[in-house]
Amino acid sequence: xxxxxxxxxxxxxxxxxxxxxxxxxxxxxxxxxxxxxxxxxxxxxxxxxxxxxxxxxxxxxxxxxxxxxxxxxxxxxxxxxxxxxxxxxxxxxxxxxxxxxxxxxxxxxxxxxxxxxxxxxxxxxxxxxxxxxxxxxxxxxxxxxxxxxxxxxxxxxxxxxxxxxxxxxxxxxxxxxxxxxxxxxxxxxxxxxxxxxxxxxxxxxxxxxxxxxxxxxxxxxxxxxxxxxxxxxxxxxxxxxxxxxxxxxxxxxxxxxxxxxxxxxxxxxxxxxxxxxxxxxxxxxxxxxxxxxxxxxxxxxxxxxxxxxxxxxxxxxxxxxxxxxxxxxxxxxxxxxxxxxxxxxxxxxxxxxxxxxxxxxxxxxxxxxxxxxxxxxxxxxxxxxxxxxx
Length: 390
Prior knowledge:
The protein has helices spanning about 20-35, 35-40, 140-150, 225-240, 245-250, 325-330, 370-375, and strands at about 1-5, 40-50, 60-65, 70, 80-85, 85-95, 100-105, 110-115, 115-120, 160, 165-170, 175-180, 185-190, 195-205, 210-220, 260-265, 270, 280, 290, 295-300, 305-310, 315-320, 340-345, 355, 370. Strands 1, 10, 11, 12, 13, 14 and 15 form a seven-stranded antiparallel beta sheet that branches. Helix 1 (about 20-35) packs across helix 5 (about 245-250). About 15% of the residues lie in helices and about 35% in strands.
């Protein structure tokens, strides 16, 4: 994902009393995410080999990024992924010692075969640090990485990187970067997920955090019914107000009833360029209500595909929930600041973005987030197949 860590203030908005009840909310989301096309499924098979020798590679991770659908190749290098819902997916292949490979495509309801020939990875001297002893500032840099990558939300307080020793950091010329010699193993005890995160790139400057990687989710076992109910509630809260929630509401023509208000802004401008600055002012106080939210996307090549396209920035106000105390602290507004409705901005740095009927964007790095959507990081993610009520 690509995120911009620059929140902002927003004006007061109408009452929450206009929002739908949770049962009607879930019914709408299940409807727009579970049509007839989704009842069919996709099967993906193939072989993973060494690109130089052609020898099969057993134990390679093959999975649908940001999902719970994954496997490893067998002794012959063969793999199979079953019952994959059609739509936009990133098929990701990774193995220790090799360059990862990703395929972004729109899968139809049929069988696919993808054979992967992985190139051996060449490590530069000093790129990988297995032990922290060589870097006296490693622990402090790890703390900074956790804050920027995992996040600073309430959920982040219950998230742990189990194998931090695989991380190596660089901090020079105003740019903080991180690499990982192996997939990060992350336990999110707030939402009940264990995540293997295949980190490809992490860069942070004074006002921008950008990371590229693919998570594979699995559910943690509950200790008791109370914990299961807690995870259920927190997963629903993590989903509602998310970008996927917004896309599903757009497709169902229910943005207003789902609690979203959309506005068009020509631009936004950031002030306070000191390291860690989080204050943001809008270049122009003018904003224009998007009375027809369907105008920001158009039909794609098939009935299941859509194209998100707009100029400037779209302001997203989610009226279903106010800003959290953690967000106010992250924004450095303090406890005495009055919480507003959650507000974010998005823009399309790489032009129009294609998404499907499930709210999946074909190019997951085509949409840049500002504000509340940028505040919520790995600690607040749920798998792409998650829907409230399931």
